[in-house]
Amino acid sequence: MVDNEAIYDICHRNLDIEHPTYTYLNRLIGQIVSSITASLRFDGDLNVDPTEFQTNLVPYPHIHFLLATYAPVISAEKAYHKQLSVAEITNACFEPANQMVKCDPHHGKYMACCLLYHGDVVPKDVNAAIATIKTKRTIQFMD
Question: Which residues form the Tubulin/FtsZ 2-layer sandwich domain (predicted)?
Fold first, then answer.
Protein backbone atom coordinates (compact mmCIF):
# COMPACT_ATOMS: atom_id res chain seq x y z
CA MET A 1 0.00 0.00 0.00
CA VAL A 2 1.40 3.39 -0.96
CA ASP A 3 0.26 6.96 -0.51
CA ASN A 4 1.11 9.57 -3.16
CA GLU A 5 1.68 12.25 -0.52
CA ALA A 6 4.16 10.08 1.39
CA ILE A 7 6.05 9.18 -1.80
CA TYR A 8 6.03 12.84 -2.87
CA ASP A 9 7.51 13.90 0.48
CA ILE A 10 10.23 11.24 0.28
CA CYS A 11 11.23 12.39 -3.21
CA HIS A 12 11.27 16.02 -2.09
CA ARG A 13 13.05 15.50 1.24
CA ASN A 14 15.48 12.65 0.49
CA LEU A 15 16.19 13.11 -3.21
CA ASP A 16 16.14 16.93 -3.25
CA ILE A 17 13.59 17.03 -6.07
CA GLU A 18 11.80 20.36 -5.77
CA HIS A 19 8.62 19.36 -7.64
CA PRO A 20 8.47 15.56 -8.06
CA THR A 21 6.37 14.41 -11.01
CA TYR A 22 4.50 11.13 -11.25
CA THR A 23 7.50 9.78 -13.14
CA TYR A 24 9.68 10.20 -10.05
CA LEU A 25 6.99 8.76 -7.80
CA ASN A 26 6.54 5.75 -10.07
CA ARG A 27 10.29 5.15 -10.22
CA LEU A 28 10.49 5.06 -6.43
CA ILE A 29 7.46 2.76 -6.18
CA GLY A 30 8.99 0.54 -8.88
CA GLN A 31 12.23 0.31 -6.90
CA ILE A 32 10.31 -0.70 -3.79
CA VAL A 33 8.25 -3.37 -5.57
CA SER A 34 11.40 -4.64 -7.28
CA SER A 35 13.15 -4.99 -3.92
CA ILE A 36 10.23 -6.81 -2.31
CA THR A 37 9.94 -9.27 -5.21
CA ALA A 38 13.70 -9.77 -5.72
CA SER A 39 13.55 -13.21 -4.10
CA LEU A 40 11.30 -14.37 -6.95
CA ARG A 41 13.97 -13.46 -9.50
CA PHE A 42 17.24 -14.27 -7.74
CA ASP A 43 18.49 -17.27 -5.80
CA GLY A 44 19.77 -16.89 -2.28
CA ASP A 45 20.12 -18.80 0.96
CA LEU A 46 18.02 -16.38 2.99
CA ASN A 47 15.37 -15.50 0.40
CA VAL A 48 11.75 -15.40 1.43
CA ASP A 49 8.84 -16.14 -0.87
CA PRO A 50 6.42 -13.17 -0.95
CA THR A 51 3.50 -15.56 -0.53
CA GLU A 52 4.85 -16.20 2.97
CA PHE A 53 4.16 -12.57 3.89
CA GLN A 54 0.44 -13.11 4.13
CA THR A 55 0.88 -16.39 5.99
CA ASN A 56 3.44 -15.12 8.48
CA LEU A 57 2.57 -11.44 8.85
CA VAL A 58 -1.22 -11.36 8.68
CA PRO A 59 -2.77 -13.24 11.62
CA TYR A 60 -6.35 -12.31 10.74
CA PRO A 61 -7.68 -12.38 7.15
CA HIS A 62 -9.65 -9.13 7.53
CA ILE A 63 -6.51 -7.29 8.69
CA HIS A 64 -4.43 -7.48 5.54
CA PHE A 65 -2.80 -4.12 4.92
CA LEU A 66 0.97 -4.04 4.99
CA LEU A 67 2.94 -0.87 5.70
CA ALA A 68 5.99 -0.73 3.45
CA THR A 69 9.09 1.22 4.36
CA TYR A 70 12.18 1.60 2.22
CA ALA A 71 15.58 2.71 3.45
CA PRO A 72 17.86 4.26 2.61
CA VAL A 73 16.37 6.60 0.02
CA ILE A 74 19.28 8.83 -0.92
CA SER A 75 20.34 10.53 -4.13
CA ALA A 76 22.94 8.92 -6.38
CA GLU A 77 25.41 11.67 -5.49
CA LYS A 78 25.09 10.98 -1.76
CA ALA A 79 25.21 7.21 -2.25
CA TYR A 80 28.85 7.40 -3.32
CA HIS A 81 29.85 9.35 -0.22
CA LYS A 82 27.58 8.02 2.49
CA GLN A 83 28.18 4.61 4.06
CA LEU A 84 25.31 3.53 6.31
CA SER A 85 25.55 0.74 8.85
CA VAL A 86 23.02 -2.08 9.12
CA ALA A 87 21.86 -0.55 12.41
CA GLU A 88 21.24 2.84 10.77
CA ILE A 89 19.30 1.27 7.89
CA THR A 90 17.27 -0.87 10.30
CA ASN A 91 16.40 2.13 12.48
CA ALA A 92 15.43 4.13 9.39
CA CYS A 93 12.88 1.45 8.52
CA PHE A 94 10.88 2.38 11.60
CA GLU A 95 10.90 6.13 10.97
CA PRO A 96 7.57 7.54 9.73
CA ALA A 97 9.49 9.73 7.26
CA ASN A 98 10.53 6.60 5.30
CA GLN A 99 7.12 4.95 5.17
CA MET A 100 5.15 4.67 1.95
CA VAL A 101 1.95 5.70 3.75
CA LYS A 102 1.47 8.82 5.86
CA CYS A 103 0.79 7.53 9.35
CA ASP A 104 2.60 7.47 12.65
CA PRO A 105 3.03 3.93 13.97
CA HIS A 106 4.23 5.36 17.29
CA HIS A 107 0.54 5.92 18.05
CA GLY A 108 -0.18 2.22 17.61
CA LYS A 109 1.50 -1.16 17.71
CA TYR A 110 2.99 -3.48 15.15
CA MET A 111 1.39 -6.88 14.77
CA ALA A 112 4.39 -8.32 12.93
CA CYS A 113 7.44 -7.17 11.05
CA CYS A 114 9.55 -8.44 8.16
CA LEU A 115 12.85 -6.78 7.29
CA LEU A 116 14.29 -7.54 3.85
CA TYR A 117 17.93 -6.68 3.26
CA HIS A 118 19.87 -7.05 0.06
CA GLY A 119 23.53 -6.70 -0.66
CA ASP A 120 26.50 -7.58 1.50
CA VAL A 121 24.71 -7.87 4.84
CA VAL A 122 25.96 -10.07 7.67
CA PRO A 123 23.20 -11.76 9.74
CA LYS A 124 25.17 -10.96 12.90
CA ASP A 125 24.79 -7.22 12.17
CA VAL A 126 21.07 -7.63 11.51
CA ASN A 127 20.57 -9.54 14.76
CA ALA A 128 22.50 -6.88 16.69
CA ALA A 129 20.40 -4.08 15.15
CA ILE A 130 17.15 -5.87 15.99
CA ALA A 131 18.36 -6.60 19.53
CA THR A 132 19.09 -2.89 20.02
CA ILE A 133 15.60 -1.94 18.82
CA LYS A 134 14.05 -4.49 21.19
CA THR A 135 16.17 -3.26 24.11
CA LYS A 136 15.38 0.41 23.54
CA ARG A 137 11.69 -0.40 23.00
CA THR A 138 11.50 2.29 20.32
CA ILE A 139 8.67 0.42 18.64
CA GLN A 140 5.88 -1.54 20.24
CA PHE A 141 4.44 -4.87 19.21
CA MET A 142 1.09 -6.35 20.19
CA ASP A 143 1.19 -8.89 22.99
Answer: 46-143
Q: What is the pLDDT of residues 51-103, one digit of tens each?
A: 776 677 777 767 667 788 999 998 888 878 878 899 999 999 999 999 999 98
Q: What is the pLDDT of residues 9-67, one digit of tens each?
A: 999 999 999 999 999 999 999 999 998 888 778 777 667 777 776 677 777 767 667 78
Range of the domain at 44: 4-136
Three-state SS for 94? coil
31 within 8 A of 70, measured Cβ to Cβ: yes
- CB-CB contact of 133 with 139 (8 Å): yes
Q: Quote the CA–CA distance of 36 and 31 in Å, as a whole number.
A: 9
Residue 130 is assigned to a structural domain of this protein:
yes
Q: pTM for the whole thing?
A: 0.82
The number of distinct structural domains making up the chain is 1
If residue 13 lies in a helix (H) or strand (E), which one and from where to where? Answer: helix 4-15
Gap between the Cα atoms of 92 and 133, Å rounded: 11
